[in-house]
Amino acid sequence: MAAAAVAAVAADRVGLGWRGELAAGILSNLAQIDVLEVIADDYYRASRASMDALCSLARQVPVSLHGVGMGLASTIPAEPRRLQAMARLMKTVQAESWSEHLSFVRAGGVEIGHLAAPPRTPESVAGAVANIALASRIVGSAPLMENIATLVEPPASTMDEAQWLAQIIDGAQVPLLLDLHNLYANAVNRGQDPQALLLRLPLARVGAVHLSGGHWIDEPEGTGRRLLDDHLHDVPADVFALLTVLARHAPQPLTVIIERDGNYPSFEHVLDQLALARAALRAGRAA
Amino acid sequence: MSSPTLEAYLAVLYTDEAKRHAFLQAPQAQALLHGLSPQEAQAMAAVDHIGLRMAAASFQHKRAAHGSHAKPRRGWWRRLLERWR
Q: What stretches of A29-77 show up as alpha helix (H) in DSSP?
């Protein structure tokens, strides 16, 4: 193994998304968890006691804050009050980094309630770049920006997913938080090769990785099925294989976070998932 | 071809079942009715109808789940953390 690859292996980190349901297991196994990712929106209006607990956690293990409500990938300017909330939280927690999604979550006074893919166009690229710049100024540091899963190809798009992601990441000069299950789900739902899609992304700009699972759902007409990214299932073997490919092509250190939002298994099983992620990274670094 | 008006209409289609149904019956006409440009309306007419319905159902499920867990259950782990530190 080349010296650079050895150094990257030493710096790669594997951690978990913080969830209250996993707290006991996390706190009992911190030696096996390199980093935690905390949903920032859960703490914008948190009590003093909750903030103290989060700050205590951040003193014990590196913490990254993950936003879900800014809607930065939009032709509509981001709301400064949401960015200021992240700025306050970053300052209080002293988190090492923060991230958000390349999605829009509201428009015209309508809250969608989750992450939606905007039309992939030069205009939404420009809107995202401007919003990310505004967010970076207000928060005081640049976010990692995450690709999202979508069950519908965004209508009125003039660019494909890889082009759109690359143009935003390059234009905003921010690291990519590459969600490999989102990428996998989008590719298989379009009938594309996930690895081919991965290799079209700006892999040198990947700073962190999300891994999660999902399940297949039937189309309404019963003609086919699509993969839903639900964070309720184990990371599929195909997604671990994508992590190996990524580790082979991206020499920089990677921070890998496993996300689980429900249907919680035993914590031993969660630790097994972390071990599989480490093994996938090692396989890629060794190749 | 991407505008705040287009995003706003997409948000409506993802959240309002009646307007989504109307759109699926007559996509271009409904898009024009909601202020989209002729170009945008033509592009909207090509939307994947099944994907739109599945995405809307997924968002509905997320909203419902979020509503039922509006108060994150932090109390017990906070107490645990306080004992642990």
A: 48-60
